[in-house]
Amino acid sequence: MVxxxxxxxxxxxxxxxxxxxxxxxxxxxxxISYARDGMHVLEIGTGTGFVxxxxxxxxxxxxxxxxxxxxxxxxxxxxxxxxxRTDMFDGLKVESCFDMIIFNPPYLPTSNDEKVQGWLNYAFxxxxxxxxxxxxFLDEVCGYLAPDGVILxxxxxxxxxxxxxxxxxxMGFDVDIVGREKCSFEELVVIMGKHRHx
Length: 198
Hints:
By secondary structure, the chain is of the alpha/beta class. The chain has one domain: Vaccinia Virus protein VP39 (Rossmann fold), CATH 3.40.50.150. Helix content is 28%, strand content 30%. It has helices at 22-34, 50-58, 70-78, 121-124, 132-141, 161-170; strands at residues 3-6, 9-12, 40-44, 62-67, 83-85, 98-103, 145-156, 173-182, 187-195. Helix 2 links the parallel strand 3 and strand 4 (62-67). Helix 1 (22-34) runs parallel beside helix 2 (50-58). It starts with a strand and ends with a strand.
């Protein structure tokens, strides 16, 4: 079994589960920077559990994760992550209140003939414009976020960084880019969103 180590965490990988890449490392670093001891943290779409594992190795948080892929759930559990198999927020109690919600969504613009076979498609397929899952997330996230909570959302230039920031602004979030990395064909950023208090 393949394992990777990063910042004190050791993560087992698995077939049919997205292998951590530049986006995963960028999001993990942002999570460590902004999480505080004692926080209740939710990671949506945890995959191998990489981001959650790195966060738990560095900050004393109470963490729950979700993933729709049964192979990812099994893999994340083998990495010590408390994970619920569900589609995004569906399996969570509505009264759940998290101080931080982390999401590395499927963001690749994907036409029908570009879909990947099997469960792995959930990790990549962002719909025609790369935004379908991100928009679903933003529609629901406020119902699970504590009043002073923050979201950390990984966004690619393929999806439109300015557009995503504007969407979050319209939804009542103060937005700030807290991580940035240029990759071969895209720029990746982590957008932090905080509820705007009137």
